[in-house]
Amino acid sequence: MIVLALVARGSYVLAETHDPEHDRFLPAAQTILSRIPPNSSKLSYAFEEWLFHYVSQDGMVYMAVADAETGRRIPFTFLAHVQKKFLASFEVPAEDDATDYSGLSKTLKEMVGRFNADPQAVDPIAQAKNELAGAKDIMTQNVEQILSRGERIELLMDRTDNAANQSMAFRRRAVGLRRQMWWKNTKVLALSGFSGVVLLFVLYSLVH
């Protein structure tokens, strides 16, 4: 988390915000400001379990103090946001500038609050990772749907094969049944014919 953030013109602090529990960092930050060379630079100072990060460019210094576990990438990304916000709202002040920067202090406090609530919100790499993770989840979900669809297709094919086999079996049974019925009809006709012949023979014998 960030416990202190400031914007300075050289070693003169224009606006700052800090956690009241870390007032002791103010003198250390002032000392570091007095030692920053005039040329553009980006550096981190270690102090106990904390890191003082700063970006110096065009006579302006943007500084943030964060715990060492946070690393360097995210605090410097935060400072890039601070620098962009400052340059969008103000011009680089001259040494005798008397502009009121109380609004900037409020903006710094809000930015620190948002950062501490969700550090990844200001980290483009973390955002890219989250987007990639989301895309991966979507792709995984799509693959699962395709696999599930494939299973349904295979099941449908199995059912179609079963229906075809059942249809062929039914056809065979129908053909067999038709043959059986033809033989039965033939037998009935033959028996009827034979009975008729016998009856005629008996009638003929009785008459003669």
> What is the C-level CATH assignment of the largest domain?
Alpha Beta
Strand order of the largest sheet: 2-1-5-4-3
Beta percentage is 15-25%
H and E order: EEHEEEHHH
The coarse overall form would be rod-shaped
User: Which topology of the largest domain does CATH recognise?
Assistant: Beta-Lactamase
Helix coverage percent of residues?
Answer: 55-70%
Number of helices: 4
Look at the helices and sheets and give the structural class.
alpha+beta
Please outline the major beta sheet.
5 strands, antiparallel
What Rg is obtained from the alpha carbons, in whole angstroms?
47 Å
From the N-terminal CA to the C-terminal CA, the straight-line distance is 133 Å
Number of strands: 5
Low-confidence stretches: none
Task: Note down, in words, how this protein is organized.
It is built from four helices and five strands. The longest helix has about 80 residues, at about 125-205. It folds into two domains: about 1-155, Longin domain (Beta-Lactamase, 2-Layer Sandwich); about 165-205. By secondary structure, the protein is α+β, with helices and mostly antiparallel strands. The model has no long low-confidence stretch (mean pLDDT about 80). It is rod-shaped, with a radius of gyration of 47 Å. A hairpin with a 2-residue loop joins β4 (about 50-55) and β5. It has a five-stranded antiparallel beta sheet, sandwiched between helices.
